[in-house]
Amino acid sequence: MVTSLRHFEQKKYGPTASCRVAIVGFGTVGRAVASLLLARDEEHTLELTHICNRRVASKIAEWIPTGVMWTEDVEEVLASDVDVIIELLGGLEPAHDWVRRALHSHKSVVTANKQLMAHFGSELLELAWDNEQYLGFEACVAAGVPVVSGLRDGLAGDRLIRVCGILNGTCNYILTKIEQQRTSFADALREAQQAGFAEADPTDDIDGLDAAAKLVILARAGLNIELRPVQVTCRSIKDVAFFDFEYAHELGCTIRQVSIAEVEQGRAYAVVEPAIVRKSSSLAGVSGSQNLIVSTGEFGGETVFSGHGAGGNPTAVAVLSDLLKAVRHRSTGLATPHRPTADSCEVTSDLETRQYVRFIVRDRPGIIAAVAGVFSRYHINLDAVLQKPGYSKSELPFVITLEPCHESRIEEALAETREFDFLVKPPLRMPILQQEDSYASAL
Amino acid sequence: MVTSLRHFEQKKYGPTASCRVAIVGFGTVGRAVASLLLARDEEHTLELTHICNRRVASKIAEWIPTGVMWTEDVEEVLASDVDVIIELLGGLEPAHDWVRRALHSHKSVVTANKQLMAHFGSELLELAWDNEQYLGFEACVAAGVPVVSGLRDGLAGDRLIRVCGILNGTCNYILTKIEQQRTSFADALREAQQAGFAEADPTDDIDGLDAAAKLVILARAGLNIELRPVQVTCRSIKDVAFFDFEYAHELGCTIRQVSIAEVEQGRAYAVVEPAIVRKSSSLAGVSGSQNLIVSTGEFGGETVFSGHGAGGNPTAVAVLSDLLKAVRHRSTGLATPHRPTADSCEVTSDLETRQYVRFIVRDRPGIIAAVAGVFSRYHINLDAVLQKPGYSKSELPFVITLEPCHESRIEEALAETREFDFLVKPPLRMPILQQEDSYASAL
């Protein structure tokens, strides 16, 4: 019953020549890719020929076939006759340079490098197209979940208007820890680091830059727009406290780091931020380091993709699936179907949504009146004032929810409230997602 | 910003010749396909040339361009120079004959016909391969959710061992109605029929035949096995009553029509049946007519796909996405990559799972002892006996849950309990899904 990969490929696409594969970057994912490639390829349709890494002597593993060349020098790989290079370096350089040179020398590339594809995806896809090579990058977003091809090809018949999701497992892990263990952000982060779910320097995850790169890739695949990573507004989750979850629960909600890109009539909205989401929504149901993406199409409505968002094996599945597509494209002479088609567009961050604003104050009479007075002057309607008992008077958190209004106006009002001497910290503002998994109003 | 389809196709795949398309079967889905095709193809890369239907005069719509030929005679379509035929007839014949002839005459085919692909998928995919045509059938399962290509291509790098899901929106609608409105099966069915969610003859949905066809298609795409539809064990949802939900809730569970195919070492298990699922599982979270599919891979773990499982527009999205793939395959000369690769295999239905068994009895002393005695003789361990108060003594439902044991042995024991004169109805047995979305033990 268990069909070997060669049998599979032969039956599916006719006999294929052996495809020579190099792995550049041999860390956790690289080892998982090599292991999966060997496990899934009993008859050597895919031939692992090179493994390239710094200080490669320390990397050599005895389960790798003896014929594989271990090297520290990428030039050896680029000058060789490998057909596909699997790029698992991470970071922009030298990955960018090496991938360009690989494509120029008529090698296909499969990459798990989200920053590379977010920053240089258009250029590299164009280059792959010009050189008739395949460039696969499914592993860049949500590891093994086939959401890039799902949006780009599987939903090609629709006109997608929104992609929304939980794209960073580290943030989701930390936020669910704060919620479940009633702990502080700092303690939850420390726990995530100890459990291997956060890096020593977690800035890229916490501040949203990791999710922003993935969002750029999804927006290109699904919305056909070309965002620059800096165009994605990022707000950190570091100011979210346990009492924010208590107030969110009062609203029937919880808090998630949400990434969203919307497009309408040539204008886009793209943001990564902590947001208030309904407990019954699919976003709220995502636990631990899972990822979930909801696309909204003008014709087909909402489609959900979810699964493991990280880890060696799930990422290796995406890499190997791309590798099989690369083999198919090479054997049939078909150029990559992924030539960039996305257009740049105007990006706004001034959406009209309901808002949650949390203040921490030294309590005294007149605070609510003072804050409400500011919102009133900016013609912002209050929806509710929430003040739970049991907090210290010297560091009292309370929450005001606001009816939909433009973010720019709220920011102006909040700038004015920052002058109040009763404030212990700057206020924390989060959008309240109105419908299932989506923002209140379009652009 | 909104890129026309022609622009899109040209940028993506180079200039493409106009592709001539015929729609055969012009009901709800046919109209949605035509409408979407016209809306998404402002510059006529896709040229709708024929619409074929019985009594076609009654079908003519003025929003269809005047150049389109309306016909009752499929021979006109088959003899024409159309490039792709969209088959939306449903049913086995004449669809089977027509699709075969279309492929033989070197036309690609896109179909939404699940029974056709379940019964004759292998043959037709082989035929498409031999004739270098594309055969798309994404619309057969879960409408617009790209799960067929997701399993077959997106997760090709994994070794999938299980596909599990909610594949029939009608059953899900009825079961959620029974649960939420505390109503009977008959009333919930009537309501579903009035709301357009169930057909006048709902047998195929209720008894699981519709879901079984979809499961055969998913098993072929994901598990690489060739099941015949009759090999899928189907149990009807018609005996599920409101009190079953009350007892399921006692267990922290609810009831869903679940379709599952598992494979291990050449043996498969395939069943469509009402099952007890944990309330916190993703299966339980599926509401109304949504569909959800969970695949389990040996390497990548669980991946979830969900969205609208029916309806004109979501189905049309899948058809148009397939049509775009057909165009791409034609313009590049690539034969269909979907040549059947699946192997037939031994199918078992004798899985070892926990079980929920519900009896309805005329109450009298000694009933539980009598039933427990039978299970004991078959060496089946009882897990719990649930008897909620408030039911009529003359028609009293109670539930026994059983520790994991082989279904064949439970069936033997239940056959013996059917002899008891206190039984008002035959007992209803449902498996209790143990882990998240999966059965207790492998094969």
What do these coordinates show?
2 copies of one chain form a homodimer. In chain A, the strands form 4 sheets. In chain A, strands 7, 9, 10, 11, 12, 13 and 15 form a 7-stranded mixed β-sheet that branches. Chain A is elongated. The longest helix of chain A has 21 residues, at 312-332. Chain A has 14 helices and 19 strands. In chain A, helix 2 crosses helix 12 (312-332). Chain A has 443 residues and is of the alpha/beta class. Chain A folds into 3 domains: 5-143 and 312-341, Rossmann fold (3-Layer(aba) Sandwich), CATH 3.40.50; 147-309, Dihydrodipicolinate Reductase, domain 2; 352-432, ACT domain (Alpha-Beta Plaits, 2-Layer Sandwich), CATH 3.30.70. The relative contact order of chain A is 0.13. The interface between A and B is large, with 67 and 69 residues. Strand 13 (301-308) of chain A pairs antiparallel with strand 13 (301-308) of chain B, so a sheet runs across the interface.
